[in-house]
Write a structure and sequence with these properties.
The complex is a heterodimer of chains A (288) and B (325). By secondary structure, chain A is mostly helical. In chain A, 73% of the residues lie in helices and 2% in strands. In chain A, strands 1-2 form a two-stranded antiparallel sheet. The two termini of chain A are 36 Å apart. The chains are: A mainly alpha (288), B mainly alpha (325). The interface between A and B is large, with 50 and 47 residues.
Amino acid sequence: MEQVIVNGLYLGAQYALIALGLTLIFSLMNVLNFAHGQMYVLGGFVTYTVYGQMGLPFVVALFASAVTLAVVGALFEKLLFRPVLRRSKREESTMLLAAATAFLLDAVILLVFGEKQRGVPKIVDGVFVSDAVIIPYDRVVVGVVAIGLIVAFMLYMQYSRPGRAMRALAQDRVAAQLMGVNVDRYSMLGFALGAMLAGLVGGLLVTITGVNSGIGGPISIKAFMMVMIGGAGVVGGAIAGGFILGMMESVGLDVLRAYGDITYLVIFVALMVFLSIRPNGLMGKPWG
Amino acid sequence: MTMKAIAFLVVLALLLVGVPMFIAATGRDDLYYVLTSVALLSIISAGVWLTFYIGRINIGQGAYALMGGYVSAILVVHYGVSFWWTLPIAGLFCAGASVLIGLPILRLRGVYFAMVTLVLTEVMRLLAMALPITNGARGMVNIPLPGALTIFGITIIPDFATLSNPRLAFYVVAVILLALCYLGLYRLVHSRIGQLCQSLQQNEELSSSIGVDTAMLRVLAYAVSSFFGGVGGAIFMAIAQSIYPSSFTVADSINFMLYCFLGGLGYVFGPILGTFVLYFGWNLLYSLGDFQLLVFSVILIVLMLVLPNGLLSLALPKRGRGVAR
């Protein structure tokens, strides 16, 4: 059982980081970023290229992933989402755009990196063994880095000037603008930051699970589920949702193993029941 | 009204007589398959459009298409029911299921509903993998072609296996169903219920405060929407003569939504146009090989930048119904 909990925590840390980026973009722009999973995959491939192919240190690779995705996110916001948001009659139109960007990233990833499953050498060798748990050291490193990133992100949002501006923006766009917040700049920063988080997780996880061009969609779906559990647009909710899903997955795989591959079915049914009682998730604002 | 009826009949005649003549003249038999697919996808998208009409973003239509396909396939293969009877049964089954699923999830709005329906598609795929009767990931193959339909000894629909050109037969079936579906949708939207549905789209609290039974209406609209999805999925199954858990995936669900968006959400026939343009566009780009998806997505993005309110916003700037909030 301890093993299951450790696995759940480790998974949850990754998931929370993915959900954080999604929820950040959502809360700032009211855009459901369909391309989030693809951004994750792109981050994974950048790390694969820099660390696995070129042989540079892992930290450099991770940094490259973060920068690449931040640039992609900023460009998406400036060139695509901002004009469409301004001119479209219905806010939902951005969903079409988001889906199109997901296709675009899928296509680019497929063209540039091919369709093979890619992996990189382990960052740390060895396995931690005790009476209760067995856990490879690289998972420990990745889990700790992920938790560190979550903490850093929360501190940044809480205490830095841009963080404060973004929180104001998420609360009330018009009011923030009236108080002199540069709405355009911080929307772009927020989008870049959200994309960067996705890229960072991709870069971290490529060392363990590897990466291939087809997993973007499923990752997005998982991210949506976490955000639904926690409540869309709330930082605390995304973190809670990530850890809860990670834990449910880990426990589910252990408990339901005898019944075949039905963990996700069970999770979904539980989610539906939960949402019918609390439509906004754990901490979400009413109607997002 | 009569003008509209005449225009409708002319278009229908053109589709049922003109297109086959054109295809016979040019010998492009493969066009049948493409046009049939467009018609069927339009039927499925009509359901998505209806959920848009009550102000919900539905990305779960693939789930019902898959469900309809499986219901029909299981009835044909395991119980020997005629395909033509399974068609309405599949639709009704999906409608029934959607009432059960819809009762809780229709309380959600905005992105919450969108996300939960998206997950629903994935779950239906997992369910199809897990249930014993669906034969798991290997899917159901070699499903017989639709047989004859006779009522009181009169053959209404001949056995498809004996036809020289089943493609044409499927095309005719698809076009007739398309016409029926959109007639029904048009009637529904322009009826009292349609007006009430629009009030849901504009302000649900307000309309419920006036006394509209919003909970009943949205479940009703969702059930009709799923009915379309189930029927469309069932015919797809019959054409392909097989169905797999991956026959309708999340990507398909997203596509159905895109068809509606692209056609324009303010007009009943928007989904047909959107489906036609996107499906043909996708096929035209086939020759680009690896770059197909890239070019396709770039075109989509450019379309969104140029026409953020859908294709029909070009031609029908004033006639679009009040979708702006």
